[in-house]
Amino acid sequence: MSEQLAFIGLGIMGGPMAGHLLASGHSLVVHTRTKARAEELLRRGARWAASPSEAAREAQVVFTCLPDTPDVEKVVVGNDGVIAAARPGLVVVDHSTISPKATRRMDQELSAKGARLIDAPVSGGDTGAKNATLSIMVGGDQAAFDRVRPLLAHTGKTITYCGSSGSGQLTKLVNQVLVSVTNLAVCEALAFAQASGLDPQRTLAAVSGGAAGSWQLSNLGPKMIAGDFRPGFMIRLQQKDLRLALDAAREAGLDLAALNLVHRLFDEAIREGRASEGTQALFPVVKLTSATARPQG
Amino acid sequence: MSEQLAFIGLGIMGGPMAGHLLASGHSLVVHTRTKARAEELLRRGARWAASPSEAAREAQVVFTCLPDTPDVEKVVVGNDGVIAAARPGLVVVDHSTISPKATRRMDQELSAKGARLIDAPVSGGDTGAKNATLSIMVGGDQAAFDRVRPLLAHTGKTITYCGSSGSGQLTKLVNQVLVSVTNLAVCEALAFAQASGLDPQRTLAAVSGGAAGSWQLSNLGPKMIAGDFRPGFMIRLQQKDLRLALDAAREAGLDLAALNLVHRLFDEAIREGRASEGTQALFPVVKLTSATARPQG
């Protein structure tokens, strides 16, 4: 069944995702801050909307994929935002990673007009977006989720319903805690291996298959050793997510020591000009900050 | 080819390993602190030695699998130790996890008599020992390693030569840094999930398959959620290895912040009476130590 869809935010993630929806035979209206980013989609048959509210007026489901909480708030509940066109049955699917608290607030505002916001942050990076193999973590009204689930299948391979509004965002933040602290484990272990004179490649081979194994070790370890800091996932984006995670954890009554540590180390990485490098560029930062003034022994 | 072998230290790991060597048709002499532990092997045809030197006198290759550095030093270079029977061609294979520095020292002492010490710490736990599927990380003289490699194949599935004397121990410690800091990542992430009201099982399912995935998450995560703290690997043994890792890292000029953190948390776990629980019992400790006085929000 062809649907009237809108997609707002055509960045590295949103662009390919919108493309998959269009390719699946749906009618698509798009809006993004930099119109040039929409050109390919417009050539392929998408229509342009001058504002989020205009996009929402023409659509049954509105997708958003934006950098941070204020961007989503502006687009969804701001002046000339989606909310201006909110009506019973409209569903907003937010693929951004943003504050769970702000998510719940926006869902409530939309609910007052009979519309709903589904939080649906993704993991899998630009490769996952291009290949439609993203993991999508969904929170919000179950009926609204059931309504849009077939659409999510065009971009996601694993779609998990996590619970009420904000649960998708919280699950994504749990994911980022795992990703970043496991990355730190890899950095410290390889720094130790190198400083001890071990062959890092041989060490990786020896430990990757057992209880020490992780996606981070297998995928980022070789890049760290090779000094390849090209971004899979950029440090500044990771750091934005860790800020959200620290805030959400504190709201839940937890001050997480390892998460705080990795957040401080990413701050240091950004000070060193590594904001646009991949998260594996935490490795040189760990080596530097761990070095004792005077090696003993 | 049947060989004359000795095995010293018949604990949870050493017992099954010695059994595999015996079952492979080799002639085995055994020694251990508590003779009762040797009974099954003696019934199966192993002979008893009254001391490490006596065991070494009757063997071409001596295996040791002991709790800590002082135990290995006593057995290998102590009074009535293996060194009393050291002669050209004798190879000692140490399966214990101990200090890399002490390992190099003992290898040097044995070398003076024409014998060698190969460090060959294992990972894979008691299950790996029982099923002969251990990972063995080997350091030491390459010729001595080549000499004993076919014997290691009776207990190990993955055998990696890591470099000169001590390199096997260092690689094992790198492994333990990964294992323990990744475990901490899992603890903080699941503590955050629970405190935020997420369904922990659903959260696990959503995040295990991607960039957040690890052996620790898939294997210890479900136990943490279930409150099952029965030991796979005991906290007090992990903590002994982390002490070795911290020392070795400092000798290499590194003070590793996350490793220090997890070491402090295991200390706290031991103070709480959890020394003989599995490493997944770090979870309640992380929940307790992370709790802020007054939840915000």
Description:
- 2 copies of one chain form a homodimer.
- By secondary structure, chain A is an alpha/beta fold.
- Chain A has 2 domains: about 5-165, Rossmann fold (3-Layer(aba) Sandwich); about 170-290, N-(1-d-carboxylethyl)-l-norvaline Dehydrogenase, domain 2, CATH 1.10.1040.10.
- In chain A, about 50% of the residues lie in helices and about 15% in strands.
- Chain A is built from 13 helices and 9 strands.
- In chain A, strands 3-2-1-4-5-6 form a 6-stranded parallel β-sheet, with helices on both faces. A 3-stranded mixed β-sheet of chain A has the order 7-8-9.
- In chain A, strand 5, helix 5 (about 100-110) and strand 6 (about 115-120) form a beta-alpha-beta unit.
- Chain A starts with a strand and ends in a 7-residue tail after the last helix.
- The model of chain A has no long low-confidence stretch (mean pLDDT about 95).
- Chains A and B meet through strand 9, helix 8, helix 9, helix 10 and helix 11 of A and strand 9, helix 8, helix 9, helix 10 and helix 11 of B.
